[in-house]
Design goal:
This protein is mainly α. It has one domain. Helices cover 79% and strands 0% of the residues. The protein contains nine helices and no strands. Helix 1 runs antiparallel to helix 2 and helix 2 runs antiparallel to helix 3.
Length: 279
């Protein structure tokens, strides 16, 4: 089988000005949402301001998705790299659709259903993200051994899965069971924390180990940012479940984790655009 070619990296070591500008805008928008979230948690906003702040955060996820998908299309779907980034973007887009549905349900309909129509889209982010990372890992299989990194990542995931079971599933979710959560409620309550470990964190760790042993240089920069985003996402999602079930309480910092993770995915795409010389 022929080795799949990847676009060449830029010869200079400086990111394009557009990358810095785009990153600055995205970080700035996220910082604004962080401030608005502190006001929402402090319950100092009126109804209209609260609704606008809520929608600001929801629409921000759409911005992240559009950035990633647009860059993937510019890289080109005829390139394996373009397909990888398209799946990353589709994952963020699925999350954004879930957020839109949840915003309508909670903010405008006064509902708090669990599970809800938003959950299938939140789950889809696992599917798309894992697909992107598996494709990225496979693209390196002719350049460096991938078996050992995958085994190490799987071992770490199993250990973390045991931690999730001991800290969350066994003492909280499983005792609630179908009687309290319903069948699908039990399914998604179990799936989210385990999915964070096995479908988000483990593939990202495997890719990080592969890039590290390969010494991919600038071609690996975007994926390092993806790994950071994956760590933030998996920790936020899993710890959110624990904080909710254990009565520890939710904080604005924890609630911002998803936005920060998707921001990292969008920043990674901007870096990829520069690294792969996409105009």
């Amino acid at each position: 089988m022929a080795t799949e070619s990847v676009p060449a990296a830029r010869k200079n070591s400086v990111m394009a000005p557009a990358t810095y500008v785009g990153a600055g805008v995205l970080v700035g928008l996220t910082a604004i949402y962080w401030f608005l979230s502190t006001q929402m948690y402090a319950d100092v906003l009126g109804d209209t301001a609260y609704a606008m702040s809520y929608w600001f955060g929801t629409l921000l996820q759409i911005v992240f998705a559009v950035v990633i998908v647009t860059i993937a299309l510019r890289i080109g779907l005829d390139q394996g790299v373009g397909k990888q980034w398209l799946f990353v973007g589709m994952g963020v887009a699925a999350f954004a659709i879930g957020d839109i549905i949840w915003t309508v349900l909670e903010l405008h309909m006064g509902l708090d259903p669990y599970p809800s129509l938003a959950d299938p889209f939140y789950v889809l982010q696992y599917v798309f993200f894992m697909t992107a990372i598996v494709l990225a890992i496979r693209s390196y299989q002719h350049l460096t051994p991938i078996r050992t990194p995958v085994i190490i990542a799987a071992a770490i995931a199993i250990i973390l899965g045991i931690v999730v079971y001991a800290a969350l599933l066994a003492p909280h979710i499983f005792p609630a069971g179908i009687a309290e959560l319903g069948f699908w409620g039990l399914v998604v309550s179990t799936l989210y924390p385990l999915g964070d470990v096995f479908f988000i964190l483990a593939p990202a760790l495997a890719l990080a180990l592969i890039i590290r042993q390969l010494g991919a240089g600038r071609l690996g920069w975007p994926w390092w940012v993806i790994v950071v985003g994956a760590v933030v996402y998996s920790f936020t999602d899993a710890f959110y479940s624990y904080a909710d079930w254990s009565g520890l309480g939710l904080t604005v910092t924890l609630d911002m984790g998803w936005a920060v993770a998707n921001l990292m995915f969008a920043l990674a795409a901007l870096v990829a655009r520069d690294v792969y010389r996409v105009r």
